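Convert to structure. Protein one:
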Amino acid sequence: QVHLLESGGGLVQPGGSLRLSCAASGSTGGFAIMGWYRRPPGKQRELVALMSSAGSTNYADSVQGRFTISRDDAKNTVSLHMNSLKPEDTAVYYCYALASGLVGGSWGQGTQVTVSS
């Protein structure tokens, strides 16, 4: 069973930076896709950034150029470096991982990011 453990959320002022991390376990074959989604207050969950095991990335237009996703396959971790944060980035951020060979992905419990002065 895949388990995801997130860390790094918190309160930050507009223009500031935060780094989210997620440690994944439970897949002997690694993870085909790892990344992040978020759920802003009162809205649906939305894509933030994904990264494949081959290194290809997919970013939401709203975070392109401000957020950077990275992963360490030796440690089964994925990180999200968030710069130039805006109040509209406020959301619960969820780690997502698709284990190699499986059809459905897994979700972390979520970590709150609040951007406010």
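Protein two, convert as well:
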Amino acid sequence: QVQLVESGGGLVQAGDSLRLSCAASGRTFSMGWFRQAPGKEREFVTAAIWSGYVYYSDSVKGRFTISRDNAKNTVYLQMNNLKPEDTAVYYCAAGNKVLVFSSVDYDYWGQGTQVTVSS
């Protein structure tokens, strides 16, 4: 069983930046971030696999950057130029499947951290 501990998040204004961190208790093939806004389904944001490949949703490409420190089993999410529509609970996820874009591709989840962007 891998446990994930998230940190970061908070309340910012549009255009600001935030950095989320997620530390895992063990090594996994993929680590990523999902988000869920009120009344909406959880959606894929970004993922990084062990080899270094990264993936982004179209809505965050160019603004968000995922990075992974394999030695520390930690993944970071740098969010720049935040928009009100980025407001959501952000969840860290980790797993050992080849696919990374769906929540079913992950076995382990963090508790979630709130990101609120005011206009």
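The chain has a mean pLDDT of 96. The two ends are 40 Å apart (CA to CA).
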